[in-house]
Structure formats: C-alpha cells, structure tokens
Write a structure and sequence with these properties.
With about 300 residues, this protein is an alpha+beta fold. The protein has helices spanning about 60-75, 120-125, 165-175, 175-200, 250-260, 275-295; strands at about 1-5, 15-20, 25-30, 40-45, 50, 50-55, 55, 85, 95-100, 105, 110-115, 130, 135, 145-150, 155, 200-215, 220-225, 230-235. It has a domain at about 105-235: D-amino Acid Aminotransferase, Chain A, domain 1, CATH 3.30.470.20. It contains six helices and 18 strands. The longest helix has 24 residues, at about 175-200.
Length: about 300
C-alpha cells in the first residue's frame, strides 16, 4: 500500500506551481515568454471517493489517466479542438503530465448519459425525469435510454457535491447560444466515443466533459481529462444485464470497500485502503486502458 502525504509541489525547471485540485496540479511558465498561454497539467496517483481525497495512492493511476486522455484526444480530434499541445514534459513528471493550451473554462460539468444509473437513476426514480428530461416509465438500473441525453451539473467546490441542473439553468447562467453549443459538442463527442468503446467490447454508460475558450481563436475547446475511468462509467458489454448495478471499470472497489467493509462513518477523514483494494483498482484502470487502446500499459 502506498500512502499519500501532504507535500510541497514539485520543483520543475521552467515551471512554477499555480494551484492543486483533488487529483491534478497546475503549473505555468516561470518566466515571461511567448509560451505564457500554456499550462502544465500534472496528474497524481491520488484517488477520491465520496468527495474525499483518500490517504492511499493507486500506483501508476496518473500515468494511466494521462495516456488514456491523450489517446482519446487523438480519436476525437475531428469532432472538436482540444487543449493538448505536447507530452514533452520535464523528466520528474514524464508520463503523467501534459502541456496544454490555457483556456477560460465554463463553470459546468457537461454530462452525457446513454444508460440509466447513478444520480440519474435516483432522480428518475423520484421524478420520472433527469434534469427536466422526461423519460419512459418502467426503466431499471442499467437500462439503455431511448437516446443519449445531456444532463449538466454544477462544478462544486472541493468537498461539496456536484448538482444536476437543466439546460435551462445553464442557459440562464451562460446564455442560450453557449448552453446549446455545450450540449451539441457534448452529444457529438459522446456519440463517437460510445461507438469506439462498443467496438472494443465496452459500454460507455455515461461521461462528463469540460470545455473552455481559447483566447486567440475564440473557439470552443475540449479541456481537462476525457473519457477515463475517473470521469466515465464503462461496463463490459458481455456481462451487461439491466436490473441491478453493473461492474464498472473505475473506482468501484474503493467505493464498495468504504461503504460496506471499512466501518467508515463519512463524518471523519477516510481510512487507508487495504492492499487488495489498491491492486484490484489499479488492475481495473489498466484493463480499461488496454481494452480501449489495444496497447499494453507499461509503467
């Protein structure tokens, strides 16, 4: 088991630390240069669950997420521009970092759902709708929806829950044209990604994208990380059976252990993960990468 500790940001030649999120650290050029419109995004091996960053690391998780994001950016390049500039990064973060175009990000999680599960299922069971979209009666956990839907969410501060909202809410905050552009881009990306995953025997049940605007071009641009087990729900197409929760290629082992076996009350800091949960989670992330890309993962 690898346990994380609170450490100072890495000292990287040519870059200075700006801020850190749950999983990623952001750096900007340390001296004035023509490249001040770039940022360095470093992905750690940290893992979060139930709005907490856990004290245990998942070895190689940062490298898996970075490699898979870069692969998906390449697959989706014809749909919408993305912010990836280069994977030629300083040696201490090689394999887990990307140099990206700086974007002005929109404050909304752009979620696409092709299947009913998670928070969408809970909302449907209570109201028959998901973010104001009326769905047919009688749907069960894991059912494929009649068509994919756009179900945006607010971007909550660390430690708080994202909240599902309607397209009308996004339009009220950002303007109708922007809201519709975000919806259309999200659904085009999901449609292509879902087809690619299905060709590889995986179901992309739902996912979230984040978008921003690049200053020079003014173009809507895909940012953050995309279509990884951290931001997406993948199921094995061969074992998919609606009516109950599906086995996912994500942090399911972590959530299950915390909720069922750890004795954690969620009112205190979460406990360290046992070695078995760490290894199962790492293996699941690697399997998702290898099945999607067709490439072996080398740490």
């Amino acid at each position: 088991m690898t346990t994380s500790t609170t450490t100072s940001p890495l000292q990287l030649d040519g870059w200075q630390w700006v801020t850190s999120g749950k999983i990623r650290d952001l750096y900007e050029p340390s001296v004035s240069s023509p490249f001040n419109d770039l940022i360095l995004v470093v992905t750690s091996d940290k893992i979060s669950a139930f709005d907490y960053v856990l004290p245990t690391l998942i070895p190689d998780k940062g490298k898996i997420l970075t490699a898979l994001t870069a692969w998906w950016f390449e697959q989706l390049a014809g749909v919408i521009p993305n912010h990836l500039v280069s994977l030629d990064v300083p040696a201490p973060v090689q394999g887990r970092a990307m140099i990206c175009q700086r974007l002005t990000m929109y404050p909304v999680e752009c979620v696409a759902r092709g299947y009913l599960t998670g928070s969408g299922l809970a909302e449907y069971q209570a109201t028959g709708e998901v973010t104001g979209i009326k769905l047919p009666e009688g749907l069960a956990d894991g059912d494929r929806l009649p068509y994919p839907i756009f179900t945006p969410a607010t971007k909550a501060a660390q430690g708080a829950h994202d909240e599902n909202v309607s397209l009308a809410y996004v339009a009220d905050q950002l303007g109708l044209d922007t809201a519709e552009s975000l919806r259309d881009a999200t659904m085009k990306l999901y449609t292509k990604a879902e087809a690619i995953a299905r060709e590889r025997g995986l179901i992309l049940a739902d996912t979230k994208f984040e978008f921003g605007v690049e200053a020079a071009s003014g173009l809507l641009t895909l940012g953050d990380e995309v279509l990884t087990p951290d931001s997406s729900r993948y199921w094995d197409a061969k074992t998919w059976e609606p009516g109950s929760p599906q086995a996912s290629f994500d942090k399911q082992f972590v959530r299950d252990w915390l909720a069922q076996d750890s004795g954690w009350d969620r009112a205190s800091e979460p406990p360290a993960l046992p070695d078995e949960v760490v290894e199962k989670t790492r293996s699941r992330y690697i399997e998702a990468y290898e099945r999607l890309t067709g490439q072996a993962f080398f740490a």
